[in-house]
Amino acid sequence: MARYRKRPVEVDAVRYDGTNRDEVDAFMGQAGKVEETKLPGPGRGLHDGIVIHTLEGDMTASPGDWIIRGVQGEHYPCKPDIFAATYEEA
Predict the structure, then answer these.
(1) Surface-to-core class of residue 57, CB atoms within 10 Å of its CB (0-12 exposed, 13-18 middle, 19+ buried)
(2) What is the reported pLDDT for 21?
(3) Which helix (H) or strand (E) holds 28?
(4) CB neighbours of 80 closer than 8 A, spacing ≥ 6?
(5) Smallest Cα–Cα separation from 71: which of 1, 5, 8, 2?
(6) Own/partner pairs, 9-13, CB within 8 angstroms, 24+ separation
(7) 76 φ, ψ to 5°?
(8) Which residue ranges in the chain fall short of pLDDT 70?
(9) How confident is the model at residue 41, as a pLDDT?
(10) Which residues contact 22 (CB under 8 A, 6 or more apart)?
(11) Can you tell me the distance from the alpha carbon of 41 to that of 10, in angstroms, rounded to the nearest whole number?
């Protein structure tokens, strides 16, 4: 079995904080569309979120998630713990 290492790549990203939908919209530009939604929260109730249209289909982002622009200009959400384990500021 061969082992492989992920190539180093820099990405652009913005953190969604629940109040900056316009900033996320501007970040995605013409390449993406953001829609507001309600997501189940911890316990009971709903919290604000956004829907990101990705190459793999619609994905939701909660406050605290990062929105990443990939190497082909695609956008997708990333949970904060995965983002911290995968990326560092360039």
Answers:
(1) exposed
(2) 84
(3) helix 21-28
(4) 15, 64, 65, 66
(5) 8
(6) 9/71, 10/90, 11/68, 11/69, 11/70, 11/71, 11/87, 12/68, 12/69, 13/66, 13/67, 13/68, 13/69, 13/78, 13/83, 13/87
(7) -160, 150
(8) 30-33, 35-47
(9) 64
(10) none
(11) 32
Contact (Cβ atoms closer than 8 angstroms) between residue 51 and residue 34: yes
Q: How many residues does the chain have?
A: 90
Q: How many CA atoms lie within 13 A of 14 on its CB side?
A: 15
Write down the pLDDT at residue 44: 66
Whole-number pLDDT of residue 45? 66
Give the rounded distance of the alpha carbon of 37 from its chain centre. 15
Domain ranges, ordered by start, for the chain = 18-86
Q: Give the model's pLDDT for residue 39.
A: 62
